[in-house]
Amino acid sequence: MSLLKSVYRTNTCAELNEGLIGHEVSLSGWCHRIRDHGGLLFIDLRDHYGLTQVVADPDSPAFAAVEKFRAEWVVKVTGLVRKRPEGTENPGLPTGMVEVFVTSVEVLGAAAELPLPVFGDVDYPEETRLKYRFLDLRRERLHNNIMLRGKVVDFLRAGMKAQGFNEFATPILTASSPEGARDFLVPSRLHPGKFYALPQAPQQYKQLLMMAGFDRYFQIAPCFRDEDPRADRLPGEFYQLDLEMSFVEQEDVFRTVEPVIRGVFEQFGKGKRVTQNWPRIPYAEAMRKYGSDKPDLRNPIEMQETSEHFRGSNFKVFTRLLEEPKNQVWGIPAPGGGQRTFADRMNAWAQGEGQPGLGYILFFDKAKDETTQQATPGASGVGGRGPLANNIGPDRVEAIRAQLNLNAGDAAFFAAGDPSKFATFAGSARRKIGEELKLIDENQFALAWIVDFPMFDWNEEDKKVDFSHNPFSMPQGGMEAMQTQGPVTIKAFQYDIACNGYELASGGIRNHKPDAMVKAFEIAGYSEETVIERFGGMYRAFQYGAPPHGGMAAGVDRIIMLLAGEQNLREVALFPMNQKAEDLLMGAPAEASPKQMRELALRVNLQAK
Questions:
Q1: Of the candidates 65, 61, 64, 45, the residue with the CA atom closest to the CA atom of residue 53
Q2: What angle do CA 154, 155, 160 make, to 5 degrees?
Q3: Closest by alpha carbon to 98, among 23, 34, 21?
Q4: Interatomic CA distance for residues 184 and 196, integer angstroms
C-alpha cells in the first residue's frame, strides 16, 4: 500500500506492477500524453514519481469523459490494474508491464492551451520558459535536475556532519563588505538614510564563529551579488557549501574537503572517472601552462614559452616584440591540427575574439608529397610550413617541434606580447583547439587545487594596489612579507578547486592577527580607521584570542550543473532570473509604492541614459 494514500490516490504513478493485477486503484496526476488509436484511448498519466498508462475503450463507463481530456489536465482516475497485451510492454518503465483500465474519472484541474510543451524536450525561448517556469519544471529533464539538486545537498550535508562540522545559519541582513562584487542594499525603515546589505558570502560571520569557539562550521548558504549574469553565474542569488575550521593549516583543509567533493562526483557522476589524488598547481603555473586559474585538465594541451626560438629571427613581428624584456612568445601545441583549413579556422576565431590572428606552424612528413601522400625520394624527417616557418628557418622550426613534442600532422600556434595581457586569450585558444580537435576527455571530472594566489594586484585603471582575491586571507610570510616585499610579489594562503574548466570552490587560511589585518588593508588603501569602522566586529574579535583558522566555499549550483551535464546554471535552479536580472515569473524588480517610499525616506532620482 502506498504511503501517500489519500482520497485522491491509492498509489502513485510509479508504483503499479504485476503484483497488483486485478486490484482496483486510484491515481491522480497530469495527462502527459494522450493517444487515440481508433477509438481506444491511451493516456500516460504523470505525477512526481513516474508514469502509468491508462486505457479507456467505448465499453468503459468513463469513455465519454476521457475523450475530453487534454494535455496537462489534472485528473483522478479509478480502474482495474491489468497486464498489458503481449507486444505492448515497456520494460524501460517501472510500470511498463501493466496498465489501468478506467472505470471512473474526475477532472481536478483543467488546463488552458499551453504556452510551451511539457512532453518531450523541445528547445523553447528562454523568456517563455522563465515566465512559465512552473510548466518548464514539469519537463522530465528539469524535474530530474531539481531532484538531483536535493540529493546533492543532502549528500554534502551528511558528509560535513560526518566530519564533525556543525550547521549554523548566519544573518541575511548585514553590513557591506568588500568581497569583489556589488552589494544588494536594503534600506532601513527604522534608521532612515541607512542600509543593510545582503551577504555576498558569510565570510565575517563564519570567522566570528571560530572566535566564538565553535571549531567547525558549515551551512548551505545563500549568497547575493549584484553582478552581471553569465552562463556559469546566476544573477542575484546563488548557494554555496560554506565551511570554516579552527586550528588548521592549508593541507588540513584539503584533507577535509577532498573526500566530500570527490565523493559527490563519484556518487552522482554517472560512472565518469573522478580524480583521486588532486594535483596542487600554483596560480602562476596554471596561467603559464593553461592560460586560466580554473584550467580544464581534461584537455591535454600545455602551453610553453618559445621566445628563444624567435629571438633574433627573421620573423620581425616577434623579434621586435621580444626587444621588450616583459614580452614573451608562447607556443600552443595542436596535436592533429596540421591542416591549413584548421589554421584558417583558428585565425578566423582569433579575429572574432578581437585579436589580429594566431601565428602557426604546420608540421608535415618530408618523405610524403603534401597532396598525393606519395613517397618523395631522398626526403626524410618532419618539416614545417607557414609564414612563421618560412621566416625562421628549418633549424628553429625543428627546435620548436622538439620542445612541444609534436609530429607530422600536428601544428603549433603562437601568442605573443605581455603575458599578463594575452594569457587569458591564449588560454581560450588552448580550449578552442582542444574542442575543435576533440582532445578533451568527456568521460571524467578532472579536479585540482589551484594554490599560491597573489595577495595583491596592481589596478591599472585606478593606479593603486588592490586585493587580488579574498581580503581576509593570510599572506604567506605574514607581517614580515608585507613589510619587506613588494605588494604584488606576496603570495597568499589562498586556494581554489578547479574542475573541467570551472572554479568550483575558493578559500584560504585567514589573517587572524589584528596588526597583520590592518597592515594588509593599509597596503590596499584602507586606513586603520576604515578597517575598524567597516570590519569592527572582526577587528574586536581578533583582540580577544583568535585561533588560527581557515575554510572555503564550494558553489553548489556549479557542482550540480556539472553533474547534470548542463551548460547553464539556470537549468539547475528552481526559479532563476533572466540575463537582465529580471524575475519574469514574479515580476521583479518592480517599482515600490509611494507609501513604501515614504516609509523608507527614499526618493527615486533616475539618471538620463
A1: 45
A2: 100
A3: 21
A4: 8
Instruction: Give dist(CA 431, CA 577) in Å, integer.
Output: 29
Query: How far apart are the C-alpha atoms of 224 and 535, rounded to whole Å?
Result: 19
Residue 456, strand partner residues? 467
- pLDDT tens, residue by residue, 370-392: 554 555 554 558 999 999 999 99
Check the CA dihedral 545-246-548-264 and report its sign: negative
Angle made by CA atoms 515, 517, 519, in degrees to the nearest 5: 70
Query: What does residue 238 show for φ and ψ, rounded to 5 degrees?
Result: -150, 170
**Among the listed residues 107, 98, 58, 95, the one whose alpha carbon sits nearest the alpha carbon of residue 80:** 98
Compute CA 250 distance to the chain's CA centroid, rounded to the nearest angstrom. Answer: 24
3-state helix, strand and coil shares in percent for the chain, rounded to the nearest 5? 30, 25, 45
* Residues 24-38: tens digit of each pLDDT: 999 999 999 999 988
CA distance 99 to 56: 10
- Sole residue written with cell 475523450: 67
How many Å apart are CA 580 and CA 183, to the nearest integer?
17
- Segment 95-124 mean pLDDT: 93
C-alpha 404/C-alpha 352 separation (Å) is 27
Q: Which residues of 288-313 are buried (b: 16+ CB within 10 A; e: fewer)?
A: bbbbbbbbbbbbebbbbebbebbeeb
Q: What is the pTM of this model?
A: 0.91
Per-residue b/e over 585-599, b at no fewer than 16 CB within 10 Å? eeeeeeeeeeeeeee
Give the span between the Cα atoms of 413 and 345, in whole angstroms: 12
Q: DSSP per residue over 292-309, as a string?
A: SSS--TTS----EE-GGG
Q: What residues have CB less than 8 Å from 6, skipping those under 6 apart?
A: none
| Secondary structure (H, E, C), 144-184 | HHHHHHHHHHHHHHHHHHHCCCEECCCCCCECCCCCCCCCC
DSSP state of 134: H
5 has a pLDDT exceeding 90: no
Tell me whether strands 236-246 and 549-555 are parallel, antiparallel or unpaired.
antiparallel
Bridge partners (DSSP) listed for residue 412? 333, 361
